[in-house]
Amino acid sequence: MMATARERHRPGELPWGWWLRANGAHFEDEDGRKWTSVRDAFWRGELGLPDTYALREQLEFLLRVLLSVDMAECGESERRFDLFRGNPVFRTFYMCWLGTVGLLQRGSTDDLSPEGRSVLMMLIATRDPEWEDLPIADVMAAAVAASRDASDRDREQALQNFERAIGLRRHVFARETVGQSHAITLTSMASGSPARMPVRRVTWSLAFDDQSVRDNLFAWIAARVDNWDHWGRMAYSKGGDAFTQHLLGLVVASRSPQT
User: Fold this and answer.
1) Which of 33, 155, 208, 232 sits at 20 to 30 Å (Cα–Cα) from 186?
2) Stated pTM of the model
3) What are the mean pLDDT values of the chain's consecutive 10-residue runs (259 residues total)?
4) Nearest 5 degrees, angle CA 95-CA 96-CA 99?
5) Which long-range contacts (C-beta less than 8 Å, at least 24 apart) are formed by 194-202?
6) CA-closest candidate to residue 41, choices 53, 29, 30
């Protein structure tokens, strides 16, 4: 019996999925299954993973990891920090998963298998050009955002609408992202003597490693916009540490049961 194209596949020589056949708007594999793209066939058919809003983001991250493994000049500590935000648990699990699905040489964390090289070739060939120049921090942020469920996406849209609607205020809380840090800042505009030219100054900030935690606190602050001027004057006059203590007390009190 003649071997099928997939059975004749010699990993490492051609991109993964070269045996798929384009048929109209779909790609067919040799079992007759239809896929929307080569990447879809790899994600759902080969890896057996469920469809997700974050498919593009997850595959871009996989591409970055496979490229880093393939680049001899990229050191282990650099990969760990840049790709996995310095999280050893995340990195260890992800690399073990790559080995389990056959993309790394058996027992190795720094050497692609022939199949891993074919997958790398496919991901490069099918890459969306808009991802090419994005730093890894933006890729991670996009993956997190795309992975949120409907309620999280609705909340993000509501927060963005709120941020656009607050207008010019003397004291403004805002969400900011600097590198891999997610922060809430409070800027205040000085007025009166001796200020002749009003400029905004950051009077308080609080940084988080987790974007969702930052957004939870910002949503709590946004719901109390009527207090912003009072809080802004407090941070401006008493300092950021005093305001942090005051804010922490308010958050705890708001979540305490009524007595």
Assistant:
1) 155
2) 0.57
3) 60 86 88 91 92 83 88 56 75 91 85 92 88 68 60 70 71 82 84 55 88 87 87 89 92 73
4) 90
5) 200/172
6) 29
